[in-house]
Amino acid sequence: MTRPAFRVGVISDTHSLLRPEAVEALRGSELILHAGDIGAPEILDELSQLAPVVAVRGNNDLATWASAIPLTQVVTVRSRVILVVHEIAHYRASPPAVRPQVVVCGHSHQPGFFEEDGVLFFNPGSAGPRRFKLPIAVGELRIGSDGVAPSIRELVLGA
After folding, report:
1. Strands 80-85 and 102-104, how do they pair?
2. Which of 16, 34, 113, 128 is most exposed by smallest CB count within 10 Å?
3. In which region does residue 92 sit, left (phi positive, over 0), alpha (psi from -120 to 50) or beta (all else)?
């Protein structure tokens, strides 16, 4: 019998704002990845009430509390290696020794995903304050025996 897919919630660029809509979208995740620009430690505390959290420091995470958060994290879920980094440029400039199947990043506030040389690049977009006319969004990776299925969920605010 096949196990159900492992649900990984993905969030980035909260910039000290964890919207209730983002919390609801991430509810039921078995793991949450935060791809940086967290803004405040309370964000991670609240997310950890939903599921274990793996987070990286973003370019705006400059306060003392953030110095303990690494710039990159590697996590393995069901034999899939996932690298979490805030800026995709940092991955490209210094790829890790272990080749990931998935690179989770943030920074651009633009949600989306693409595959390049067998690696899935996934950006959930920004769940924090709106930037320009970009959507407010979170993401999800469903990891099953048949691979990794990415999806983006645009948040409907105030619904």
Report:
1. parallel
2. 16
3. alpha
Q: What is the pLDDT of residues 91-106, one digit of tens each?
A: 887 777 889 999 999 9
Domain ranges of the chain: 6-154
Joined together, the tokens standing for residue 144 give: 């099953």
Closest to 155 in 3D by CA, of 28, 32, 21? 21
pLDDT, one tens digit per residue, over 106-147 is 999 999 999 999 999 999 999 999 888 899 999 999 999 889
Task: Tell which CATH architecture fits domain 6-154.
Answer: 4-Layer Sandwich (3.60)
Could you tell me if 136 and 157 are in contact, meaning their C-beta atoms sit under 8 angstroms apart? yes
Question: C-alpha angle 111/117/122, rounded to 5°?
Answer: 15
Taking the alpha carbons at both ends of the chain, their separation in whole angstroms is: 38
